[in-house]
Amino acid sequence: MIELDETDRRILRALWQDATLGAGALGRSLGLSQPAAWRRLQRLRAQGAIRGRQVALDLETLGFGVTVFLGLRLATRGRLGLEDFERAVSAIPEVQTVEHVLGLYDYRLRVVARDLADFERVLRRRIMTLPGVGQVDANVLLSEERRPGPLGTG
Amino acid sequence: MIELDETDRRILRALWQDATLGAGALGRSLGLSQPAAWRRLQRLRAQGAIRGRQVALDLETLGFGVTVFLGLRLATRGRLGLEDFERAVSAIPEVQTVEHVLGLYDYRLRVVARDLADFERVLRRRIMTLPGVGQVDANVLLSEERRPGPLGTG
DNA sequence: CTTGAAAAGAACTGCCT
DNA sequence: AGGCAGTTCTTTTCAAG
Q: What is the CATH number of the domain that holds B38?
């Protein structure tokens, strides 16, 4: 865990919105010179605050119009059960996110499909056949808003 | 919705892992020349397949060690109820994601906090006071795996 | 599609306040 | 910590096959 000043937080917030910004552009928007912004970037990366950069793909455009969140309970909850389950779920390409959680569910999955018929196929042939799967709850995504998170207050 | 060939899919998969790759590096890893890879990138962006680039922040390192998923049902479900709720939830910095869903819940929130005590504060003072909030279910994140999604199968 | 090269811009270094 | 000036490298763009 590291300490950030307000300038660092501004840098991270700006990069969160658009990671294509370089040290020069960042410096201009913050009133810093290019090398000064560059040195802060280096430090933030060395400290591990920035893990990497990813493209945000537009799944709608790519033909995947349906996103469904599944909440799963396992019937068998031993250590082997978890490992078997995780190995099997990792082999399903339509699963975008696997979250191991504590609470009402054991696992939460984010699943994308081309349409509802495609999703039904994934659900019946892939999800329901996972080892140890018990109860399955589903929520269909209507719209989603992603926000920069608590860096503003930090 | 657009058509992709296998090379396009490879490009998107590579960028999903590391968006810092430029046209040159992409071309080398795919057996294309730098201008050829560059033109494909341009096309993919023009078609809207690539929405943008984001940094992946390491929330642990930044001091936010607790992530909780909330499933919410609203007590009042009219149009005004939804708008009031969305406006209010957008003002909570600890809320990273707001998903409007169809199913067991009306909304799903991803909430980050420094620790469980901090999370309790957010839950009591911010979440439970949201307009129209009914039932609230919680799941605490233990571990998470993100995967490239269904681009491999196309 | 390729290679090659020129122009532009970004990244990085050293030295100074 | 930040700024300035200069060097090096990559990306971008164009020409030609």
A: 1.10.10.10
